[in-house]
Each structure stands twice: as structure tokens, then as C-alpha cells.
Amino acid sequence: MSNTRPIVRFAPSPTGYLHIGNARPALFNWLFALRHGGSFILRLDDTDQGRSREEYADAIRRDIAWLGIAPHRFERQSLRADRYAEAAERLKASGRLYPAYETGEELERRRKRQMARGLPPVYDRAALRLSDAERAALEAEGRRPHWRFRLDETVGEVRWDDLVRGPQHVTVASLSDPVLIREDGTFLYTLPSVVDDIEMGVTHIIRGDDHVTNTGVQIQLFEALGGAVPTFAHHNTLTTASGEGLSKRTGALSLASLAEAGYEPMAVASLAVLIGTSLPVEPARDLAELAAKFDLSMVSKAPARFDPADLDGLNAKLLHAASYADVEARLAALGVGGGEAFWNAVRGNLVRLSDAALWWRVVVGPLDDMPPLDDAARPVVESALALLPGEPFGADTWKQWTDAVKAATGAKGRALFMPLRQALTGLDHGPELAGLLPLIGRRNTMDRLAARLHSSAG
């Protein structure tokens, strides 16, 4: 890489909510900028006024902030129409942008005829052969032109060195001259994108590999407008666990839904970035840590399958490693007390932070109904109540207490510990009771043991 600080961009359209597949290019661009000391532009592709919504624009900014991305610059294409119109006029003047009048139905019939003759369904540039009189006649019929960018077929192939895929090329003869301006005068994605990339100094375009073919067109457009051609990187895309594509329209795996489900942003970011690479899928504590080990050369060319079930393991690992200071404010917001002692006691059993509220209810009570106490467990609970140590309860209280019950009853292993766990927590699994017992306290412990015996008496 050159010594120039890179400028990258993430350019979503605000026509739906971001999903995990959209997060991948956003994160790749952010990590690249972070790793190389560059800057990141969030640029909304909101030229489609019919489908763009302000609520989606707000959600995009909120979602990438949740991931930890803090753009250095924010732009909206809807505010830059004059720049695109000026670029279009320059292309018209140079003969690279020309009017075409075919309807969609006419173009489809033409494509079918070409395919029937064994020819590629590429636009035949019929519009370039129209005389001035023929164009005037079409416009007199009420037809309005769309405008196509004339590709330079004399170069044969457009080539670039892709940071993910290596040397790439697109044969110009395999491409149709792309439409840049619709009949109603609105711009398609390609022209605004290239104009913005030039004027905003974008040095690297990092995006999904579904844009590979578009790159040949865009490189020619950069050159036609006199702009420096950025370096391209086309990463593999994410699919669902079953191999289906992700869509903003369905809302599947939206970032908002993952946040609402209680996943940590770094669990989502780590999986979105590392799956489909040569790196192990392990949670990073923050994006700086992820940027330090991630490189585009590590990305596979094959699609990567995103399984939400994988998030649970990553989420759990992040929480298990989190300090009390990391989560103190969030625990307070959940109504969870107990301080650092409680956090250290339960964090190893958490998958999502909200699980801590469940264990806090176990500590403070009341407990849910429990199954009847069987005859084998009764002597253990009776002895436990009789041998309950005095206060204060500390880190060694559980061992001292259970040693005494074991000596009195002869019970050991599951026969000793399960009746006590059920009596104290109402569950047959959970955090180590050595850590929970001081939080439950002597009064609650005594009441729960007594209640357990009473509920199954007679």
C-alpha cells in the first residue's frame, strides 16, 4: 500500500433496515481505515426518492454506531444532484453519454432474438444509428430518452488488481452500455457513485463480490470523467445458514433485531467479519483489536454462511471475559444488584447479559414452584437446615457446610449437591453455589430449606 492515507466509503441506500450482510462491507471498510490510519465516509445513496425513507436513514446511522463505527464524514446523494447533472453534461459533450428510446418491452424482445441466434444479449447500440429526424419523430410520439454510457470497446478488457480476488478482468464486449439516467431524468446508482468517489477522494472501494462486473463499467466511467481510479476489493458475501441470500426487505437478521435479541455488538461484528476468512472465528473485545489482526487478503472467495446459532457461543465468551466495570451500568439498567461479587459468580453461566437478571431473581427470590422432594433427598435437606452455619457467609461457607452435611448423612456427589441446589435456586443447574450462597444470605437460605421441607411434607 502507498503512504497515502486511505479514504473509504460505505454507501447504503435507506430503503430498508441494515442486516448482517450489510454490516460486512461497513465493517470491512471501517477496519481497513482503522488499520491504515484512514478515514471513513458514510454516504447515503438516497437518490431514489420513491423508496428512500428518513426512518431508514436514521436507523442506518444508529445501527453502525451500535457496531462501533464512527464515520469521519456524512454525505447524502440527494443533496448533490447538481454535481451529477454537471458530470452528465460533460459526458454528453464528449460523446460518451447518448440518448436511447427503446421501451423495456422492445429491449426484451431484442434480447430474446439475440439469444435465439446464439448471440450474447448485449445492447446493440441501435440508438446511435438514429438520425436527428428519427429521434425527433420518437420524441414527437411522447417518448423520452434514457441515457446510456458508451463503453470504450477498443481496450478489449478492463483490468484491475483486486485486494481480495487478485488480478481481475472484464471483457468490454460482454457488457451492455449501461443506463446512467432514466427516462424521468433521475440518476441510477452508477453515475452518482463515481462522481462522489472522485470528488470525495475515495482511494479504496471495498464491497461485495456481486459488484465485480460493475467494476469494469465504473473504471471506464472514472477515466471518462478524468478521475483517479480507486483500488478495488470485492469480498465474499454472507448467506443464511441454508445458503439463501440476505435481503433488507425481509428484515431477516437485521442489526436492530440482533441488538434487541441481546447480542453484544462485538459478537455480531466478530462473526460478520471473521466467518469466511482464514482466521479463527473468535470474539474480539473491540474493533481496534479486530482491525489489528484482520486483512483483506485473508478473505475467502467462496460465500460465507452466517448461522445465528454461532452468535451464542461468541456472545458467551465475551461476557465470560468481561469485567464488572465493563457491564456495571448495563446491569444497573436491568435492575441487577449484587455488585462485583454477583457478576463474578454468574458471568460464566451467561449467554446474553439479560440472563443476569434471571440469576438476580434467583438470588433475591421468590423461587418458582419446584417438584416434590423425594425420600432420598429429604435427609440431606433436613441436615442442611440443622447444620446451617452462622453469619457472616463467605467464600468458604459452602464447602464447610456441605462437608458437614456429607459427614452427617453419608451423601456425596449428585445426591448431596442436587437437593441443595434445587432448594436454594429452584433449578438443577447454574452458577457455583459457593459464589451464590453469600449473596442469597443466611435468612433466605434457611427460609428456602424450610419451605422445601414443608412443601413436600406428608
UniProtKB/TrEMBL annotation:
Protein name stated in the entry: Glutamate--tRNA ligase
Domain Aminoacyl-tRNA synthetase class I anticodon-binding: 375-451
Main location: cytoplasm
Catalytic activity: tRNA(Glu) + L-glutamate + ATP = L-glutamyl-tRNA(Glu) + AMP + diphosphate
Residue sites binding ATP per the record: 248
Alphabetic keyword roster: Aminoacyl-tRNA synthetase, ATP-binding, Cytoplasm, Ligase, Nucleotide-binding, Protein biosynthesis
Pfam family, one: tRNA-synt_1c
Gene: gltX
Subunit structure, interactors included: Monomer.
GO molecular function list: ATP binding; glutamate-tRNA ligase activity; tRNA binding; zinc ion binding
HAMAP family in alphabetical order: Glu_tRNA_synth_type1
NCBIfam families in alphabetical order: gltX_bact (TIGR00464)
PROSITE patterns xrefs: AA_TRNA_LIGASE_I (PS00178)
Organism: Kaistia hirudinis
E.C. designation(s): 6.1.1.17
Subcellular location: Cytoplasm
SUPFAM superfamilies: An anticodon-binding domain of class I aminoacyl-tRNA synthetases, Nucleotidylyl transferase
Spans through the membrane: none
Motif 'KMSKS' region: positions: 245-249
GO cellular component: cytosol
Gene Ontology biological-process entries: glutamyl-tRNA aminoacylation
Short sequence motif 'HIGH' region: positions: 12-22
Occurrences of domain Glutamyl/glutaminyl-tRNA synthetase class Ib catalytic (ranges): 8-312
